[in-house]
């Protein structure tokens, strides 16, 4: 004999322990008079007991390692230059203006043989007073990189007597950038990093080496007292292998 | 020391902490693998789905909505991925029992496992929508409200599907018993 859908639902709810007291009483009254109802209840209880008693299978022991090894090394957004491009949307010219609005900027110099006393003051003073870097530090040259290991833009700006190398880059893994210039009268004046940490930099005579990983926005400041013509060679290394080269030129005044 | 909860681990993951992700992987690989196996009746497919699920989670960490429980999210991905596998293999329609092969080795087909085999075979004869609620309720131990959150359907629909699924399974097992 077919059982009313209402009581089938009540039997199921009862098995799941999800039945209100009044409906429990109604179900009990129904079952007391229905052998078919009692049979269905017993069958469903058996079925649920069987299902609940099913053992969980163990996944293959190597699966965890397979998953971990197949994860992208960096978070997904740094995986490829094409995907990264939208992340570079912050215009370079807003860099200093954003800072002026109160964004905390981390400044660090790990090792420099050229840093002059008060270099930090000079740098922060320079950036902090810029309300429109497009006027105060216009671009004089730039290069765009679209490599698998590193992507982004590097802009050379002038704010005499300071020359700024404005990096906006993202990498798949650790990258070393070596910037070299021949003019020995130009000296390393400081380094500023926007909204991030983890970049290390060292400066020696005519050479600056930067090491970082992931998405970074930072600026390197060079003091070019006579605003001379300046040529900066940039070499990019991934795991010790050269992956890109570029040259930025400043014609001088 | 208590292990951090899922939400804390997810926060750590979004900051690039792979160790936190590994903790989540250890915590959820078994239920995800079992959900996929119950949906697909294939250990190989279940393994593929499990790997895909965790990769998707990692690649979409920023899309996780912390207002919802992590397991709701990952179980939903697991079920969706399983259904995708069924779609690709044109297996969305329930199978009849004769076409369902047992993917286990002979040593695992002992008589004591006959009931388990019958249950899994019966499970494959019902539609994926019904199979999903059975998997979540009976194999993963989710409540009605949790299933509702995972499948993004009202609780009323969960109950309706679950009760129908049980009826269909019961009838299928009865037919098996008579064969």
Description of the structure:
Chain A has two domains: 5-52, no CATH class; 80-250, Immunoglobulin-like. Helices cover 30% and strands 34% of the residues of chain A. Chain A has helices at 5-15, 21-33, 35-52, 63-70, 81-84, 94-100, 119-128, 133-136; strands at 105-107, 111-112, 139-146, 150-159, 162-171, 175-180, 187-194, 200-204, 207-212, 215-223, 230-238, 241-250. In chain A, a hairpin with a 2-residue loop joins strand 4 (150-159) and strand 5 (162-171). The termini of chain A are far apart. Mean pLDDT of chain A is 74; it is low at 75-134. Chain B has a single domain (6-178), classed as Rna Polymerase Sigma Factor, Chain: A, CATH 1.10.1740.10. Chain B has eight helices and no strands. The N and C termini of chain B lie far apart (54 Å).
Number of domains of chain B: 1
Level of helix content of chain A?
A: 25-40%
Span of the ends, CA to CA of chain B: 54 Å
- Number of strand elements of chain A: 12
Give me the CATH architecture of the largest domain in chain A, please: Sandwich
Overall average residue pLDDT of chain A: 74
Q: Give the largest interface.
A: A-B, 32 and 40 residues
The CATH superfamily of chain B turns out to be RNA polymerase sigma factor, region 2, helix turn helix motif
List unreliable stretches of 5+ residues of chain B: none
Helix/strand order of chain A = HHHHHHEEHHEEEEEEEEEE
Second-tier CATH architecture of chain B: Orthogonal Bundle
Q: How many helix segments of chain B?
A: 8
How large is the radius of gyration of chain B?
Answer: 17 Å
Beta-strand level of the residues of chain A, as a percent range? 25-35%
Q: What number of domains of chain A?
A: 2
Number of strands of chain B: 0
């Amino acid at each position: 004999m077919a059982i009313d859908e209402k009581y089938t639902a009540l039997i199921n709810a009862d098995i799941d322990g999800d039945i209100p007291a009044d409906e429990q009483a109604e179900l009990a009254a129904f079952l007391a008079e229905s052998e078919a109802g009692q049979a269905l209840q017993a069958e469903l209880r058996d079925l649920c007991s069987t299902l609940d008693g099913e053992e969980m299978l163990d996944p293959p022991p190597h699966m965890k390692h397979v998953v971990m090894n197949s994860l992208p090394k960096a978070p997904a957004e740094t995986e490829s230059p094409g995907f990264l491009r939208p992340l570079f949307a912050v215009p370079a010219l807003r860099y200093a203006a954003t800072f002026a609005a109160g964004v905390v900027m981390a400044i660090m110099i790990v090792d420099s043989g050229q840093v002059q006393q008060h270099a930090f003051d000079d740098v922060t003073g320079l950036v902090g007073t810029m309300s429109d870097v497009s006027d105060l530090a216009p671009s004089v040259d730039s290069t765009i990189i679209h490599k698998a290991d590193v992507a982004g833009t590097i802009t050379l700006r002038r704010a005499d007597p300071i020359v700024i190398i404005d990096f906006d880059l993202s990498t798949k893994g650790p990258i070393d950038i070596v910037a070299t210039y021949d003019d020995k009268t130009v000296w390393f004046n400081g380094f500023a990093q926007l909204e991030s940490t983890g970049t290390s930099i060292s400066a020696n005579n005519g050479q600056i080496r930067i090491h970082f990983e992931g998405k970074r926005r930072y600026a390197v400041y060079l003091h070019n007292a006579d605003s001379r013509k300046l040529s900066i060679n940039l070499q990019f290394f991934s795991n010790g292998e050269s992956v890109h080269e570029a040259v930025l030129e400043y014609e001088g005044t | 020391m208590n292990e951090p909860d899922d939400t804390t681990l997810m926060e750590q993951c979004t900051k690039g902490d792979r160790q936190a992700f590994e903790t989540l992987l250890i915590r959820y690989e078994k239920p995800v693998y079992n959900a996929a196996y119950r949906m697909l009746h294939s250990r190989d497919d279940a393994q593929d789905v499990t790997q895909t699920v965790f990769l998707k989670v990692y690649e979409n960490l920023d899309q996780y909505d912390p207002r919802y429980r992590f397991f709701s999210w990952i179980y939903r991905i697991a079920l969706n991925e399983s259904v995708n596998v069924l779609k690709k293999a044109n297996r969305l329609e329930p199978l009849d029992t004769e076409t369902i092969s047992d993917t286990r080795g002979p040593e695992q087909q002992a008589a004591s496992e006959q009931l388990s085999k019958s249950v899994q075979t019966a499970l494959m004869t019902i539609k994926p929508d019904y199979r999903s609620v059975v998997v979540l309720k009976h194999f993963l131990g989710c409540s009605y409200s949790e299933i509702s959150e995972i499948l993004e359907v009202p609780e009323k629909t969960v109950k309706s599907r679950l009760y129908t699924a049980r009826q269909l399974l019961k009838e299928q097992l009865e037919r098996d018993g008579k064969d």
